[in-house]
Amino acid sequence: MITNEAITAAIGQRLWASLSTPLHIFESNKDAPEGQPRPYLLFQHVPVSRSDDTRGGDAPILKGFVQVSVMAEVGKGTDPANEIAETIAAGFPYGPPEGKLPVTGGVVEISKPADVKDGRIDGPHWRVDVIVSYMAF
Hints:
137 residues; alpha+beta; 2 helices; 8 strands; 39% strand; elongated
């Protein structure tokens, strides 16, 4: 059976591989320390649903998304954060074979094109979110 931890790890590894320049990545429920140089990334895995059409419990389908937030400096323009967000989105192609990530117990499939949201001010940051939706089975 696929675990949420395995999904997080598989998508996290793909995220690392998608970056042209290494950035600090802070996972769910871990704040960046005060004074953390920008840009950096916030990574949040959001499981949404679990179903099983077999009714026997032996073929679960897990759906959810990962939100990767590019946290850049306010007042430095939008291009750097947008470029990082577009690079991340390009690292998560939709559909097989590139959109399939092997995990213990099954596969994580990127279920639609990654979605780069409009940037916005978030405290002292310029924030651009990238949403990566998946199905795991």
